[in-house]
Amino acid sequence: MPPRPRFDRRAPVRELPNINDRINYPQLRVVDADGTQLGVIDREEALSVAKERELDLVLVSEKADPPVCRIMDYGKYKFEQEKKAKEAKKKSHQTEVKEVKMRYKIDQHDYDVRIGQAQRFLKAGDKVKCTVIFRGREIQHTALAEVLLRRMAKDLEEPAEIQQPPKREGRNMIMFLTPRKTPLAKQDEKEEAANKAVRTITAPHEPRPPDKLANRLVTAELRPLATGVLGIRAKRMRSNHHG
Questions:
Q1: Could you tell me the pTM of the whole model?
Q2: Phi/psi at 159 (nearest 5 deg)?
Q3: Domain range enclosing 169
Q4: What's residue 69's pLDDT?
């Protein structure tokens, strides 16, 4: 019987980056930190320039002839590369459909468990298929199942929105939820702003009713003038009568 293979318990050897003194090529094509081409120079001179700028000499293209190096802050470069890799991984997430099953007579504890499961699925970017299962004569209570699914959609309205409303499918009733693209708070703000915009639309201009107080003031101001005019006319009429 052949001997059993021994497991190598040593930690895997990490591949060290080709920077600074680990670069062994005698001639290098060097690009400065600001993108300026420094041309083909020997290794020692390239290291001296990087040290003078308090930066690193990083090998970026080993297969070129001569190999290409860039003077940069390697720590910052590594951080940006890791950040890009994480973002690419998030975008490459394959959306799956996760299912949450229950009966229409579910108790509160089990219902809370289903809500927690759905929240985890939605947070991971997956769609959720909510299924109410009927057994035997329970198929007569489809209305109660729909009420339950509507309640679940309401309880999950912050992280999710309805993709497909409750619908009977064979001996089940199903509803699909999808992660909400627009946060609920922002959506409410948009609706409130739209309502305000509708309220601020003014009605067509209507003639303003006469102001009674203004009419009284004008009448009071004109009364002495009218009295004076009438007095003058009366005097003239008396003088003509005597003449």
A1: 0.43
A2: -90, -10
A3: 97-179
A4: 93
